[in-house]
Amino acid sequence: MRAWLLLLGLMLLSGCVSQQQQTEFNPDGSGSYEIRIGFSQQMLDFAMMGNSGVSDDMLDDALVELGSIANGLPTEWQASSENWKSDDGKYRGTLIRMQFRDAAMLRDQLTSAELNELYSLVRFEAVEVVQDDQQVRILATVKNGENSMFDSQESADVLGAGLIASPTTSWTIRFPESIDSWSEREIASISEDKKTLTYEFPYPLTRDYQLEIVGTLSPAVPQWALWVVGGLVGVGLILVGIGFGLSRRKPTTSYQPYDLATAGPSTAPYPAASQTAPLAPPSYAPKPAEYQPSDSIAPYAPKPAEYQPSDSIAPYMPKPAEYQPSTSYEQPTSFGSTPAEYGGRTPTRSLGIWQDPNDQA
């Protein structure tokens, strides 16, 4: 007998076994499926005492062999295994995690013979997983495991008498949006946000449980939103059609075509390049004689005597007394008139002399 079967039998006799299954959906319909098989840590410690024959090495071998089942599962399931310990530290065991891309793959995982023989507590039969747009409907029949050690009435009487503890098994389903309906409500509990549903199965099962769960992956688009989007698209198409029609409209009779003959230069074709006459080569024509430069320089002709500069400077001749500048600045009594004592002149010191304002500079 394999090590994990021996360990499982020992744990079942003591009732210290926990089987937890969890299915979680993503908004696109894919998700993950996990199975946790745990053994009571207290019973494991007790089992390794005395003459039970269970050692720590045997426990390690059993957990490794439990996890090795993941290696034989289909590759597209992306199955993996790891050691697992419950949050409260009461259970220790193995976690097997798988991925599913659609409803059909989840159905195959729930009905897998390898997985149903793993724990022998409960098994799923007649499983249907149907996705309709954003809704998923799960149908399943839950029965006692094929190798259950407590599937007889005698075993049920033993459990009922409290001689041994009862194993625990559960299935948790999570949807990203909501869980709309579910059956077998006497063994079910749902979270406050209506997204997580958990079934706690009594063990052994006294009857088969017919499960039906309906959940929503993501919120549906409201009907009014579809109408609004459709209306906007329709209006856009109408505007595009109107614009296209206007761009293709024929010109009216009042439109006068542009006359190139009267409104612009001649449109006569240019001669071909081969018919164009070549330019005449440049020729040098000498300038007339009167424009020729001369090397002769005219002789120097002195200026007449009256234009010659003189080194003599005329002696200073002071102005008469009546023309001497005055420190007083008197203005005309009226426009165009000056005091008589100035002879009709306005004194100014701009040039240091007397100057008539009407004199030209």
UniProtKB/TrEMBL annotation:
Question: Which regions are flagged for Polar residues bias?
Answer: 324-337
Report the transmembrane regions from the record: 224-246
On the tree of life, the source organism's domain of life is: Bacteria
Q: Where is this region: Disordered?
A: 266-361
Q: Which segment of the chain is annotated as a signal peptide?
A: 1-19
Give a yes or no for keyword Membrane in this entry. yes
- Which keywords label this protein? Membrane, Signal, Transmembrane, Transmembrane helix
- Protein name in the entry: DUF3153 domain-containing protein
